[in-house]
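ligand=zinc ion
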Amino acid sequence: MEVSIIFLVVFVIIVLQGPLLKCYNFLYEKRQYKLFLGQETVYHAIVSQHLKYYNRLNQENQHKFLFRTYLFKKAKKFHYIEVEESADMPILISATAVQLTLGLDKYQFNFFRDIYVLKHDYHYGFYSRPFEGHVDHSGIYLSWDKFMKGLRGDTPNCNMGLHEMGHALAYVNFISQTEEDKHFKKEWTNFSKVARPIFESMRQGAKNLLDDYAGTNYQEFWAVSVEVFFENPVRMRHEMPELYSAMTTLLRQDPITIANIRKLAA
Ligand SMILES: [Zn+2]
């Protein structure tokens, strides 16, 4: 008798696990939404001052962009290393991740709880050249001065924040497989049909709009493509139309016609 009761309880827990989790997430977001509304003005002031991309969204999508930014920031622990913390830092870093994933359903990068903000370039592992940022199992690392240079558009085609978020997006989908976006994963195969031959040609020495660094390996090709896609979309569409088109499909957004982005889930 007891065994059958235990079996029944376990069975019920297994069956209800999915719906209960959904219900919890729904209630959590509802509560967070109320808290977010009290801070929306602050978020808008910071993000609109620095993100050209955000300013081109329509009002409805700006609202959803900021709510995603709020949830992303809330889920992360930010560490400041030899750099003075300021209120805009975690908001702008979160907003950069949200920009990349605005057309996707999954945007939290939940594998990464920790984000490390460093003042300048830094040395990592056994590499001799300094790093501007990197992503590994322990977190997302960004140098603040390079991050801001990317936001200001100081260097053409470069946006280090978007570059690292590109790595993080690939990481949660393909390495940790902890936050797989169905559309992104499915469409990656089609993206690679276009992207791989371009990458291989760069390995053979071909030059194009992408920085030579894209030829280092396929992950860097992806991260550099993300930067150019957002920083120089008109030229990318003109000079690399197939790659541009594949990225608009993969990310479900077109930076040239950004105001028309599809309706977001959250
Ligand atoms: Zn990289």
